[in-house]
Write a structure and sequence with these properties.
It is a single chain. With 313 residues, the protein is mainly alpha-helical. 81% of the residues lie in helices and 0% in strands. The mean pLDDT is 81.
């Protein structure tokens, strides 16, 4: 029983819960709300969506497992309560767990892809498995490139939900699509903006986290290239916020207020990052604010749902 509790502890329940919440926001708040404007609704069977969530969750867990395996010595110093490979779970057990989780992800992802009629999407799970392995073994040594890969994978999660939904929409509304000469590709415009914002926020958060680890492990305070990258990412988020405010929610004042409050965090983190003292306390504050930014981006999907369902646009 103790070993099971140890395994559960290192499976990052909060992070996996965040992935599940993100997928649900994308499906029920963004996609379904946008479809409802035209009198449509989501068509992917619920059981397949649940299997998709399990597959992606297993994939994320596998990534954490192999990353912990290769980062054991570092994490004993930086986050001793999270990485328990070797100290509480044998390293060979971690490798076995990694293989099993990847196998579950590929099998379930392949099944969902088959039932959706797009079996080629199974390649995405195999590709993600390889990317997470190489990230842990080599890519992460290049801080910016490694975090770019991970952030890109996180930002692609909303797109995956749509890639599985489109075939069911096309099948269910086929006659209407032919009669009215339209398609559902416009959904990618909405999710594209959402994923872009998620990528920028996640990339900046990961870089700040990497800076904190470098400071704790190596007393490395000179991260000028990384700091410039973080500032650039938050500037990009500010531009996205301005675009969303002016082009989409121009007439919805309370939604604009949410974006404005969210946007205040962006220059705040940037100023602390560039002008603040490079110490552990400063980086922890930056990391906390950067996490708040990512959560705000994800929760904005609920704002979209409320605005669309109430016909405020």
């Amino acid at each position: 029983m103790k070993k099971i509790l140890d395994i559960c502890k290192r499976l990052r329940i909060l992070q996996i819960g965040g992935i599940v919440l993100l997928l649900m926001i994308v499906r029920y708040c963004i996609i379904n709300s946008i479809l409802s404007i035209g009198g449509f609704s989501i068509q992917m069977p619920t059981y397949l969506f649940v299997l998709l969530v399990i597959a992606l969750g297993a994939l994320v867990l596998a990534g954490y497992t192999i990353d912990d395996y290769f980062d054991t010595k570092k994490d004993v110093i930086v986050r001793p309560n999270q990485n328990i490979v070797k100290t509480k779970i044998e390293r060979i057990t971690a490798i076995k767990l990694h293989v099993i989780l990847n196998f579950v992800a590929i099998i379930l992802g392949g099944y969902v892809s088959y039932k959706t009629g797009v079996i080629n999407l199974t390649v995405l799970y195999i590709l993600a498995t390889g990317l997470m392995w190489f990230y842990s073994t080599s890519y992460k040594k290049n801080k910016i490139f490694g975090q770019f890969i991970i952030s890109l994978m996180v930002a692609f999660i909303p797109i995956i939900g749509l890639l599985y939904e489109i075939p069911f929409l096309n099948g269910f509304y086929e006659d209407q699509m032919k009669a009215d000469d339209f398609n559902f590709l416009y959904l990618f415009n909405w999710l594209g903006i959402f994923s872009l914002a998620l990528f920028l926020g996640q990339f900046a958060k990961n870089l700040i986290k990497a800076n904190l680890k470098d400071l704790v492990l190596y007393d490395e305070t000179d991260n000028r290239l990384t700091n410039i990258t973080i500032a650039s990412l938050y500037m990009g988020l500010i531009l996205v916020s301005i675009y969303v405010t002016k082009s989409i929610f121009e007439t919805v004042k309370w939604a604009q207020a949410y974006i404005i409050v969210f946007s205040i965090l962006l220059p705040l983190v940037t100023i602390i990052n560039i002008c603040g003292r490079k110490n552990i306390k400063s980086l922890k504050i930056q990391l906390l604010l950067s996490k708040a930014i990512v959560i705000s981006i994800a929760l904005f999907g609920i704002i979209i749902a409320i605005v669309l369902q109430k016909g405020l646009l």
